[in-house]
TrEMBL record:
Gene3D superfamilies, sorted: HUPs
SUPFAM superfamilies for the chain: Adenine nucleotide alpha hydrolases-like
Organism: Tsukamurella spumae
Similarity annotation: Belongs to the universal stress protein A family.
InterPro entries: Rossmann-like_a/b/a_fold (IPR014729), Universal_stress_UspA (IPR006015), UspA (IPR006016)
Protein name as it appears in the record: Universal stress protein
Domain UspA: 2-135, 144-281
Length: 286
């Protein structure tokens, strides 16, 4: 996981330490000082003392992160990595041998809880494995929330959500939102196009049940609450993130179109969720 010495990154390292223990994996804490980029902000002949200052800041960030991890989970196995490179590049490289990459939602220069920091954005876009963006508050006994739309990307997220709910011993809330039509227009739209909203809802409920079919046998310990709502999928997921332990969203991996882009739903959720967000990839065949 990546740290920069900010309070948000320490929150993230505490969450990552608990996850490492739960998964039975060591925790690798990484911090980077991009000395080349930093020097351009001052002059091209920055002194050795300037570089030593940046390296000292990196060492301080790692030491604070280790202390926070130990305080949270004394039994966690910890390793540290530092580098004179861009944080996103360092984390992307480390992710190749990791089961999960963890970042805080904003860093030392963060302005708002409604904004996701550049490092978190970069990692979420470039890392092809699972990425957790730690924001808000994770309720220990809160449900895992997942969005379901019937796509292949959604199916990858649904499986991951069942696995997370089972491992945590919590319920799963499966959210399916249909039609982006504003509620204020619904009546007029239904009248104009002769739409039976109740019949549509019944069909959507059946579609959600079909998308979840099979997982009940595989994960008999997970209690599932099915939520079908008419409206914006992102708003529904953010709403249900309140009091959740985790929100799971899918996103395309590397490929012709989805290479470095987050989907509109996943991007919105990681910017506004009230609890940590797990982004799972659905690799795109090239």
């Amino acid at each position: 996981m990546g740290v920069d010495g900010s309070d948000r990154s320490l929150d993230a390292v505490r969450w990552a330490a608990a996850e490492a223990v739960r998964r039975g994996k060591p925790l690798v804490i990484a911090s980077a000082a991009d000395t080349a980029a930093a020097a351009l902000g001052f002059n091209l002949t920055a002194s050795d003392s300037f570089y030593r200052y940046l390296e000292g800041r990196t060492d301080e960030a790692l030491a604070a992160a280790k202390a926070a991890a130990r305080e949270t989970r004394p039994e966690v196995e910890i390793g540290t990595v530092s580098g004179a490179t861009k944080p996103v590049d360092l984390l992307t490289s480390l992710s190749e041998n990791s089961v999960l990459t963890v970042v805080g939602d904003t860093g030392a220069s963060g302005f708002s809880r409604a904004l996701i920091g550049s490092v978190a954005q970069g990692v979420a876009r470039k890392v092809t494995g699972p990425v957790a963006v730690v924001r808000g508050t994770a309720a220990a006994d809160g449900a895992v929330v997942v969005g379901v739309d019937g796509s292949e990307v959604s199916a990858t997220a649904v499986r991951a959500a069942f696995e997370e709910a089972s491992a945590r011993g919590v319920d799963l809330i499966a959210v399916h939102a249909w039609t982006d039509l504003p509620a204020s227009y619904a009546a007029a739209y239904a009248a104009a196009y002769d739409i039976d909203w109740e019949a549509e809802r019944t069909r959507e409920e059946a579609a959600l049940a079909e998308n979840l079919a099979g997982y009940a046998d595989e994960f008999p310990d997970v209690t599932v609450a099915r939520v079908v709502t008419r409206g914006d999928a992102t708003a529904a997921l953010v709403h249900h993130s309140e009091g959740a332990s985790l929100v799971v969203v899918g996103s395309h991996g590397r490929g012709a179109v989805g290479a470095f882009l987050l989907g509109s739903v996943s991007g919105h959720v990681i910017a506004h969720s009230a609890s940590p967000v797990l982004i799972v990839r659905n690799p795109v065949q090239s």
